């Protein structure tokens, strides 16, 4: 497509949607495996193995391309993405150990409600009225899901909401990186930087790893690897704003898993709340606002107020 930024494919929303849905099925599996494995070890250990296993897979892939495949002028954006992603996963893992998997997932994956607002914070572009409407509808759904339930709203729920903000930043960063960076480089730097970031957490939070948990830790890493590959490739076929609604498939997958594995049947409140969150997200991301261009946003996100895109 003439004039398209390097790294993009001709837009195909169907392929982008399918890849995104598959990616977030893998994310639902990550949540399930983390909740199971977390009964035997710490959150820090889960994070370390999640990233280190993926890094071990990516090292031979990037080595085949030589040193040139690792050269980047977007290291600040890679660091932003890794920090946001690591923080999101820590917040989610912390939450799912204390509240039902479906609730924690619903809160964390309200991220599309935040994406247009984060773009506004970075670019100062005007946010359309439908975006505010969608955010309001979505947050009404979040409150409906949480408040009628016995445990109310506490630290685990706040953690999951913090994860939503971090996830929105990570998702936008993937899109901006995809404008110029190949998939292998994006994934390598993400797993390398995330592994480095999680080592201190795992050391502080270290617990012995019983043999029963090893299959879960390996499965966690494999599911994470596939989720990241699929979402990066998906963003090459359609923008984060267009495929954003399909991340809601993770809520459905997680609710089904929660029902089957932990017998947490969705309540009527949760069905209505999920519908409001999904509907609000659809309104917000479909709002007729100008999508910020990657070079403009990368400059502001990775370099602060400086005008250089490098």
From TrEMBL:
GO terms for cellular component: membrane. Keywords: Membrane, Transmembrane, Transmembrane helix. Its main location: membrane. The keyword Transmembrane helix applies. The chain crosses the membrane at residues 12-34, 40-63, 75-98, 104-122, 129-147, 153-174, 186-206, 212-234, 246-262, 268-285. It holds the Pfam family EamA. It is found in: Membrane. It is a multi-pass membrane protein. The keyword NADP does not apply. Residues 15-146, 157-284 form the EamA domain. Belongs to the EamA transporter family. PANTHER family: ACYL-MALONYL CONDENSING ENZYME-RELATED, SOLUTE CARRIER FAMILY 35 MEMBER G1. This is EamA domain-containing protein. It comes from Mycolicibacterium holsaticum.
